[in-house]
Design goal:
- This protein has a domain at 38-75.
- 0% of the residues lie in helices and 47% in strands.
- It is built from no helices and five strands.
- It has strands spanning 16-20, 27-31, 39-45, 52-61, 64-71.
- A three-stranded antiparallel sheet has the order 3-4-5, with no helix packed on it. The protein has a two-stranded antiparallel ribbon with strand order 1-2.
- It is globular.
- It binds zinc ion.
- Residues 21, 23-24, 26, 46, 48-49, 51 line the site of zinc ion.
């Protein structure tokens, strides 16, 4: 398992959280849009294995963001 560390400037200290891809098990870091509501869900393709994950975001507090993901099953 390889792990890449990315360094990037964070001008506004944009919040980030991470989820575990349901398909490949990689830890995926996603930026969090605090303005989109305290409960969010959206589909995002895993950047590692390209499978669609349904991302669920619960923002309890800007410093306490919970993210989990599940694979989107195609019907
Ligand atoms: Zn994946």
């Amino acid at each position: 398992m390889k792990r890449r560390k990315r360094k990037r400037p964070r001008p506004n200290a944009a919040p980030e959280a991470s989820y575990i891809c349901g398909a490949c098990g990689e830890d995926i870091v996603v930026p969090i849009d605090l303005t989109a509501g305290s409960e969010q869900s959206y589909v995002e393709d895993c950047p590692v294995c390209c499978r669609p994950n349904v991302i669920h975001v619960d923002i309890l507090d800007p410093d306490d963001i919970r993210v989990h993901a599940e694979l989107e099953y195609e019907s």
